[in-house]
Amino acid sequence: MLPESTSKQTGFRQESPQLAGVVHRNIHALLDVRRRAERRKSIQERVADGITRFTGSMKFVVVHAILFGGWFLINLGKIPSIKPFDPFPFVMLAMAASVEAIFLSTFVLISQNRMAALDERRAELDLQINLLGEHEITRLIRMVDAVCQRLGIDPDEKSEVDELKRDVQPEVVLHEIEEAEEEWERERSL
């Protein structure tokens, strides 16, 4: 943590003077969005996420290693005080593991679907921000070009500046990408 004299206190924690205030604001805005999304999750989504989180941990591996190890020891007759209940080839164990795998894969798919929806929303936000940034940069280029013209400064690459002054139209870019991909697919199929 930075000393009081070199940092500013916010509602969350001290801000670093090396970062602009807008960066801190954006970080906290994104955290607020994440917190709201967590609060909106249904009980089923929370359960699925919890199970997925646990099954993706080393605790899960350790628990299963102990359970399977104990199962093998008991059912191979290595523990004399306990009578084997699932002798080799461990049919009950195979069935239990198969049923567990079915449920675990379902929970993982539920979590992945929700995460994919979140990723899609983030990608849409990124696209909107990038389009806004591109538009702002285009306007700045126009303004700088106008200042250059007013001051009689001739840019080295006038054609490039003229090209940069045009707004990018996303639908045209997408159409161009689709045509290029179709052409590439036609070339691949030959």
Gist of the model:
By secondary structure, the protein is mainly α. 73% of the residues lie in helices and 2% in strands.
Keywords, separated by commas or semicolons:
2 domains, 190 residues, two-stranded antiparallel sheet, mainly alpha
How are the secondary structure elements laid out?
Blueprint: E1 8-9, E2 14-15, H1 21-40, H2 43-55, H3 58-75, H4 91-151, H5 158-164, H6 170-189
Antiparallel strand pairs: 1-2
Helix pairs in contact: 2-4
Distance between the termini: 62 Å
Mean pLDDT: 86
The main pleated sheet reads as: 2 strands, antiparallel
Question: How are the strands of the largest sheet arranged?
Answer: 1-2
Helical content band: over 70%
Query: Helix-strand pattern, N to C?
Result: EEHHHHHH
The radius of gyration computed from the alpha-carbon positions, rounded to a whole number of angstroms, is 30 Å
Strand content: under 5%
Number of alpha- plus pi-helical segments: 6
**Structural class based on helices, strands and sheet pairing:** mainly alpha
Number of β-strand runs = 2
Contiguous uncertain segments of 5+ residues: 1-7
Count of domains: 2
**Overall morphology:** elongated
Q: What do these coordinates show?
A:
The protein folds into two domains: 1-40, no CATH class; 41-189. 73% of the residues lie in helices and 2% in strands. The chain has helices at residues 21-40, 43-55, 58-75, 91-151, 158-164, 170-189; strands at residues 8-9, 14-15. It has a two-stranded antiparallel sheet with strand order 1-2. The longest helix is centred in the middle third of the chain and has 61 residues, at 91-151. It is elongated and about 100 Å long. The model is unreliable at 1-7 (pLDDT under 50).
